[in-house]
Structures are given as C-alpha cells and as structure tokens.
Design brief:
Blueprint: H1 16-20, E1 25-36, E2 39-51, E3 56-60, H2 67-74, E4 82-87, E5 90-91, H3 97-103, E6 104-107, H4 119-124, H5 139-152, H6 167-181, E7 185-189, H7 197-214, E8 217-221, H8 225-231, E9 234-238, E10 244-247, H9 249-254, H10 257-261, E11 267-270, E12 275-278, E13 286-290, H11 293-305, E14 309-310, E15 317-323, E16 326-333, E17 336-340, H12 343-363
Parallel strand pairs: 3-8, 3-9, 6-7, 7-8, 13-14, 13-15
Antiparallel strand pairs: 1-2, 1-4, 4-5, 9-10, 11-12, 15-16, 16-17
Bound molecules: adenosine-5'-triphosphate.
Length: 364
Amino acid sequence: MYTENTISYTSVMRNASVKDAPDILRAQNLSIGYKAKGKVTPVGSALEFTLKPGQFVCLLGSNGAGKSTLIRTLAGIQNPLEGKVYIGGVDINTIQKATLAQKLSLVLAENVQAGNLNVYTVLTLGRYPYADWFGTLRKHDKVIIKEAIRATGIEKYLDKQIHQLSDGERQKVMITRALIQDTPLIILDEPTAHLDLPNRVEIIRLLRRMARQTKKAILLSTHELDLALQTADRIWLMMPNQSLITGTPEDLILNGTFEKAFRKSGFDFCRETGTFKVNTLEDNKRIQLKGDGTLYFWTHRALEREGFYITESSATILYIQEHHDDYCWMFESEGNAIRFNTIENVIEYLRDRFLHQENAVEKV
Ligand SMILES: Nc1ncnc2c1ncn2[C@@H]1O[C@H](COP(=O)(O)OP(=O)(O)OP(=O)(O)O)[C@@H](O)[C@H]1O
C-alpha cells in the first residue's frame, strides 16, 4: 500500500557490494558502425552500459541489429565511430595487445584457421599471454588446461586436427580455449550457433556456472531467446532504433521492450510464457476446447497451428475425454457428436468442416 512516506526503490539504493563492484567493461557514449569512402553508417548510437564481475549477460537483437559489430568493437578489433570502451577502467585504445589478452578472451563465430595444429596444441595457445619467451607451459598452466578440458568434456578430440572436427566440436574447443585463457572478461559471438540442443544447454550452463564461481564477466550474443531468458542475469537488447536497452529478462518482458526488439508481422509475443508464436489465427474459425493437462496443451497447440481461435464463446465444442491410459476427442455441434482417436483425425475433420462453412459463406 502506498502512503505519503512511500519511497520508490531504485538502483541507487542497491546493496553497496553490487553497486560498488568495479566495472570490468564500460561503454561511454559509444557509437558503433562502419565508415567507407567518407560515408558513415552507424549501427548503434550513444550506447552506455557496464558489465560487472560474475555477471552472465546475453546480447540479443534481430538479424542485422548490430550484435557482431558491438562485440568486435568491445573486443578492440573494430574502432568505435565515437565514444570510449573501458576494460578494467582503462581505455581499450591504450592497452597493449599482450596485456589485453590477459584481460579479455574472445570467441568469434567465424571458422578458425588453425592449419595442421591438433586440438591440444590449439588449447595450449590459450596460455600464451602468460608464457615466457620460449612459450614453456608451467605446472599451473597445465592444471588450468586440464580443468577446462574436463569442464567442457572434449577429452576425446584432443589428438585430432582442428580441420577434422565438426562445426560444433570446433566451437567447443574454442570455448575451452577461452576458459584456458582465464581472463576476467569473456566475450563470445554466437557460441552455440553450431551446437545441437543438449550441447547448447550444456555450454550455456557451463558459462553461467563459470561466471558465478570464478566471478568472470561473460557476455555472449545469441539467437537462443528462450535459453537466454532462462539463464541470463541481464539481457542487452539491440533495438531497431540503434539504442541498447539492458535489464533483467523479466523486466524487459513485462515492460514490452523485448516485444519491440523483435516485432515482426506474423509473430505474436506471449508475455505469459516469454515465447514467440507464429500467428496463424483466422477470425472466422472459432472453437471451444474442454479438457485439461497434457492433452489440453497439445490439442490447443494443434488447433492454433490450424488457425483456430480457442474461445469459450463458441458453440462449436471439442471435448477431450481421458480415462486411465485411454483418451479420445469428442466433437459436438448442433446436437451431433463424433468421436476421434488422434489429433490428426480431429484436424482433418475440422479442416473439411470449416472449408465447407467458408464456401457456404462465399456463395451467400
Ligand atoms: N563490414 C561491413 N561494412 C559495412 N556494413 C556492415 C559490415 N558488416 C556488417 N555490416 C552491417 O552492419 C549491420 C549490423 O551487422 P551485424 O553483423 O553486426 O548484425 P548482427 O546483429 O550480428 O546480425 P546477425 O544476427 O544477422 O548475425 C548490418 O546492417 C550489416 O549489413
């Protein structure tokens, strides 16, 4: 209940330890994009954000929104059009390459050119920022390498050459190398692009665990909206108007920002579930569905895919009947009842029935 004395909680009032943690990464008035033949094409403008130790952040945006451009700029391999990027409080432009490699590791989406090197050798290169002039691995380096290999489960590829790996296996190797580089900041451009679902989940969970346990800041770009919403501490959303909006997944869903970032005709964003649905609904196809549980969920989904509005106001009713392991669907309309044993039969029947209705309407 609000009273005159109620004050609004703001980020300024947060726990001092979070607020005062040093920024691992900070962008100030950052504009990113491209310059060619005197023509400047900005992709993001006046961006301001910070990344703190232990944060696991997913960068999202529609195709061409500027995620890769931002990642390349933050990693210092592309110059900003304007503004500054600070890593550990130091302007990235003033950091020597060798020093930068101790602060930031980068995994890009492009294929890795590793000649005839085998996987283990490529992994050991992750320790080069700390090696002596001869590149000798110390005991401590070997422990870190072994630990990262165990964490990502790539033991069985170690003797293979990089070009003998599948895209997904190669991706895992490059993520392992980033862990071996052991920097306070890890940036990854679409690290799960070539992985199947179990591997995507495994890698995302591993990166999130790393952030938590080792206080690394981890930023990754992805098109995996669902996984990002479930796992990220914060989401960075590249918006169609070239701004970047940051927040917790739930805040961005509830305040409509998420929806705006991916707005496209033919898709509806469902705030209840945080998912996009293909919008196939047709106004003249209305049906009432009665039942519950798993059968209700999958029947509802099949009907929506067919373009039906599921509404209690329709006199056309589909009943789900369930008894022990047995189930069926009963269709009732104008006093008649028909029984179906599969969703396929239900859909076939409804298609036919509503087609006849449409034809009848057109003839009238
Ligand atoms: N080298 C380049 N020169 C000029 N424009 C470029 C260059 N690379 C990318 N762009 C443009 O910059 C914009 C942002 O591209 P970017 O690759 O950063 O987007 P993205 O969000 O990573 O896209 P996707 O999700 O499709 O990978 C796009 O309009 C793209 O055409």
